[in-house]
Amino acid sequence: MNWTIILSSVVILLVLGLLFGWMLGVFSKVFYVKENPLVEKIKDVLPQANCGACGFSGCSSFAEALANGDAPINGCVAGGQDTIDTLAPILGISQGSTQTRYVAVVLCKGGQEEALINADAKGASSCMMAHYLRLDDKVCHFGCLGFGDCVKSCPFGALTMGNNDLPIVNMSLCTGCGICVEKCPRDIIKLFSDTKRVLCLCSNRDTGSYVRKACKVGCISCGLCVKKCPEKAIVFKNNLPLIDIEKCTLCGICVTICPVHSLTLRQALTEKNE
């Protein structure tokens, strides 16, 4: 065994290790990018939900953009007005900026008790799978599938599955991030501003005769709401009533006369808490 070769190799490796270590230390100082202390202050205020509703990949990216002036102060949907009020003095901005609060609404009332069951579909484990493989067991092909993709995706725990296999939104916890909207393959979850309004909780675009057979609470396109609305605030589009909130006076006549109770007068969270 040639010990000279072994010792030489060890020495060379040690020298190279020291050299590379020294070079890394030098380069780390030369190419060091000083982080804006404002970014850390902003990050401490953000909810750290990383929901992406602000349009950025996460809270860190939004904080950097906000510190650099590339994002609006009211961009954090999840944080809401409280976050805006806290960020304003940090950014040296007057607290005149406000944010409209949005909440998710499930536009379907056809659960297992109301919707006609056509078959016992098996094999699906998610709404997405059931939708694209047509494994839903309801006659209505527009309503909630009931596997809870929206519930599983909500980072704030604002959604739960009810006993009727329909998602229930906790308005106090909902931040309007829109993740549940993206996860629903049937497009029955929508974001609405948190204001008192009339909504049609049905998404079935079929004709009334077919809907009548498919669901007890589905809109049957009878047109009574249109005829009886004193403000002419309702029109039909795709066999569903569309309410013009600018014309609607919230009189509630349409809700009262709806024979299938698919229309509802939804209160705002602030009104419920009063």
What does this structure look like?
- Helices cover 35% and strands 12% of the residues.
- The protein is α+β, with helices and mostly antiparallel strands.
- It folds into 2 domains: 37-91, 3-methyladenine DNA Glycosylase II, Chain A, domain 3; 102-273, Alpha-Beta Plaits.
- It has a two-stranded antiparallel ribbon with strand order 1-4. A two-stranded antiparallel sheet has the order 2-3. It has a two-stranded antiparallel ribbon with strand order 5-8.
Which percent band covers the strand fraction?
5-15%
Order of helices and strands: HHHHEHHEEHEEHHEEHEH
Overall mean pLDDT stands at 88
Distance between the termini: 89 Å
Count of discrete structural domains? 2
Low-confidence stretches: none
The CATH C-level class name of the largest domain: Alpha Beta
* CATH architecture grouping of the largest domain: 2-Layer Sandwich
Instruction: Report the C-alpha radius of gyration, rounded.
Output: 28 Å
* Silhouette: elongated
Any key phrases for this structure?
alpha+beta, two-stranded antiparallel sheet, elongated, 11 helices, single chain, Alpha-Beta Plaits, 35% helix, 3-methyladenine DNA Glycosylase II, Chain A, domain 3, 8 strands, 274 residues
